[in-house]
Every structure is written in structure tokens, then in C-alpha cells.
Amino acid sequence: xxxxxxxxETTIEDPNFLPKKKSPRLERVKSLxxxxxxxxxxxxxxxxxxxxxxxxxxxxxxxxxxxxxIDLPNKLQPPTADHWMGTDDKGRDILxxxxxxxxxxxxxxxxSVLIGAFFGIALGLISGYYGKFVDTVIMRxxxxxxxxxxxxxxxxxxxxLGPDLINVMIAVGIFSVPTFARIVRGSTMTLKKVEYIDAxxxxxxxxxxxxxxxxxxxxxxxxxxxxxxxxxxAILTAAGLSFLGMGAQPPSPEWGAxxxxxxxxxxxxxxxxxxxxxxxxxxxxxxxxxxxxxxDALDPRMKN
Amino acid sequence: MVTSTxxxxxxxxxxxxxxxxxxxxxxxxxxxxxxxVDDVSFTVYEGETLSIVGESGCGKxxxxxxxxxLENPTSGEVRFNNINLLDLTKRExxxxxxxxxxxxxxxxxxxxxxxxVGRIIEEAMEILTDMPREKRLDRVKELxxxxxxxxxxxxxxxxxxxxxxxxxxxxxxxxxxxxxxxICDEAVSALDVSVQAQVxxxxxxxxxxxxxxxxxxxxxxxxxxxxxxxxxxMYLGKVVEIGEKKDIxxxxxxxxxxxxxxxxxxxxxxxxxxxVILKGDVPSPINPPTGCRFHTRCPFATEYCKQxxxxxxxxxxxxxRVACFYAEELS
Lengths: 304, 331
Hints:
The complex is a heterodimer. By secondary structure, chain A is mainly alpha-helical. Chain A is built from 13 helices and no strands.
């Protein structure tokens, strides 16, 4: 805003005043980063998320043991120098299983959010842009989806498709659709009335061009924020489904499934359930912190 | 219309109506209509500037938007070069859009913040012409120079510019397809007065250079006086008076026009006229008054005005055409 103010004065003498060259995308990313780093909560969230992603990518190099390697003589060991998080009832190293598990959980989270975002954005754009009858029909369908409690909907979908990690992604993706659809619809409806959309309409642009070249790029901020927050929910739901035996099947090192395994030894060997539980809790909190930080950083009203 | 008759009519609007439905009830039935533009007819001649003036909500912007088919007019005809635009399909309309362009009010809202200036101007050509890509960039630079900006600005983004500069970019976009008619919807209202003058002079220069026709929508009478050839005054969705600029400003016939013009500040004390202050508010366009729409606020209204709707007639020896029963007596 200050830039514009000073330019107005310059314009009066010289309409050719050359403002300093700035690429808005680079500048936006830069200012976003600064805001995220200065906000302590989002900085912590971001660092934790980064650690998880590094662990997932470099799992074979980081993990001290084979996550599936059974070592019965050493079963149910409490945390020691050899096994930092102890071993489970089959003697498998819990730390290694958690590190490999991050691959599963993050994949499930990202893929299901992508599924949800894809359909949610498409429905939201159509609904918000065309309005009227189309909007009514789509929004009623979304309302029906929203009326189900998330985990119940996912359970229903899984029982129809069969227990498998791929199906978990589909189920969690479907139940993410309504939130994306609603957010995109609202933003689209606001943006539809802005003058530059009218300007491009006056040029006879196709609906496709208006929606994908002019509306979508301008509503990315709320989508990114929602996507980040949604990752936490997706990971939590996926773990919940695996805990109930509806997702990853043994022996895969899925955190929810590990939590379920540890349940039996909760009194004798509490570490078996504690560490996977902590892994889930920490990543969920981290994504929430990052999402909240992003929301604040991207909110134009929060600009100082 | 002493001088205008020699010119060719470019745009002829006949009985244009634009009603917006108001939905209500559980089944969202249409319970009523906002009669934004109600039976408006006028002609714009080639090469002239016709201004539409009136207070907010009188339907002047909606008229412009209806001509561009940004709204779907309820009924009427918009003949451009003798083709009724309202009959055209979306595809046929695209061909016509090349000739009709628009400049918007808010220079901060009318440019997509994620596109470079060059992209914004180029997109008009991309959609409406089959000019090859390399030529388009040359044309963008040429257009930027035409509107008094540097060609290098093509690579910059809108947020780097001031309001006046942005409005020049908007003008360059409107010019990109070599249009015949440009609808200026409050094109300078959002600018500082000094920048306003610059932009108005630019519009005048371009008009001369390209033989452009302007439909200039504004509430600012000072601006209208500067740029218009003819002026049309609207009130509550209706035309109340239309005529040559000189005749409208010097010899207004309709009581509403008189009230409107008396609101222009006059720096010369000796020339100051009595200010006509209207009572009350503009009635709602949902249920407009019966008879003459101005009768609720008109100082001269009679019982007859409440019952009958005046048609627009030529009055006196001037070019003014007025929708008032008592225009002759009042003038």
C-alpha cells in the first residue's frame, strides 16, 4: 500500500516513473517465509514436519534395524542403548518401525488430501462459479457427506471396499472433499464479483479460462492452509482406521496398527503403545501449528 | 440533434429493460424484481461521447453492463452496427466483443494481480484475434506507449503501479483489439483529481486518433462536462433528459436535471444560482412510484404526474428531449 501511495504523487509529474522491479511471486514467498519463521509456533511445526519428511525419505539409511526383522529372544525390551524405543512383542525395533511408518502415514496423508483437494476444488469451483441450480445440487450432496461423522463415513467406505491402505486413502480423501468444496465455493463466489473477472468476461473468455486462469490462482491461499490442516486430520483418521484393523495389515509398520498391537501389553510394556502414539500426536500437532501459522501469514488482514 | 444527425448511429439501444429477480420463501420463488433499468432507449453516434449521468443506483452502470452482456437483459434491443447483440449466441457475441470494450472504475480491482501487465493486455488479443504470439508482444509495447507508459512495463505486475498508471493499463487492454466503442464505467471516478485530468486528456487524444466512440458513465458532472458531446440523465432506471452537452448544462429542462446541475460548485460568486435541494431519498427500484418516477421528490409535481407516466419528448428549440409533462412551462 505504501508503494502505491508514493507512486501516486510521482505520477502527477511523470507517468513514466519506473518503480523498482519486483517479482511478486518471489516476493510473496519471501515475505511468507519471514512471517512463518518469526511466528514461533509455526516455526516449531515446520521443523517437526521437515524432520518427519526427512525420516520418511531417508528411512533405509536412518533406521538402525530392519522394521520387519523378528528377534524373539529380545521381545518386549524396554528402551535401551541398542533399542532407543525398545522392541515389540516380536522383538522388532520400535524406532525403526516408527521411521518406516512415517513413510506410510505421510503418503496416506498427502495422497488422501490430494484426492480430497482435487474433487473438492473441482466441485467448489463449479458450484461457486455457476451458482443457482448446480450450486444447490452440489451443496446438498456436500451437506449429506458432512452429516456423517468423519470416521464413520470412512469406516463405511472401507467396509465397502475392503481393508487396505489404498482404500484408506480413498476413504479419507472422500471425507476431505466437503471442507475443500465449501472453502473453494466461498472464495469463488467472492472473486466472481471482482472487476477483473468482469473485464475478462467482456473479452468473451471461456468459462474454462476464467475459472482456471483467473479464479483458481487467486484462491490458492485458503486452499493451501486447508490442505495443511487437513493433512493432520487425514493422518489421524488413517491411523484410527488401522488401529481398528481397517487399514494397513500386519506386519506393516503403520503407527495406528502398532498402537493396536501395543494395546495388549499396555501394563507390562507400555513403551510399545506409547511411542507410536507419540509419533501420531506430534505430527498432528506439528501440521496444525504449521497450518495455523500459514493462515495467519497468508491472511491479508494480518499484514502490518 | 443538430450536429449528430450527420453521423452514423453506432449503437442503438431500444426499450432496454434489466430486472433482477429477488428470490424469497422456502422454494426460492421470484417474489419481486429490482427494476434497475426500465425501458431505456438511446442512440450513440459514431465518434461521439455520450455520457450517462445520475446518482448511485439509477441504473447507469447496469445499462453499460447490459450492453456488454455482462448481465442478461430482460428485454429490449441493443443494436450495434445494426446487429442486435442480445440475439447473438455466446460465440457470435465474441466476434462483436472485438468492437466493444470496457474500462472499469476501480483500477485496483480491474487487473488480475497474478498476471503481468503484458499478459493482461495480451490476453485480450489472444481471445479475440488470431494474431501470432510474437506480434502480440510488439503490439503490447506499442499500446503501452500509446497510453503514455513505458514498453518495459509489460514485464511488471499491477501492484507495482499507481492508480493512474493502472487505469492507463486498463485503457491499453481496452484498446488492444481496435474497438469502435468503449464503455467507460466510471473510468476516472476512483482517481485523484490531477490524475483524472491526465486520464481524461488521454481518452480524448485516443478518441481523436482512432475515431473511438465513448459511452461515458459517470456521476461526476465536472468530468462529464469536460469530455461529453451529448449527455443523458437517468433517474431510477429511466431516462429523464438527453441532449447536446451545451443544451443540457446551459438550458436544463427537467426538474431533476436542474437539481443535479445546481449541485456543481460555482467558484464565481456572481454566477452562482439558487441551489435546488431535493427532499427525501431515491425511492426503491423494487416498487418504483407510479406515474412519473420523480414525482415523490419533484417540487413541481401535480396529481397528474402521480397518475401518468411522461414519455420523452423534444421540448423547445434546443436539442433536449425531456420526460416531463411541464417541461415547457418550467423552462
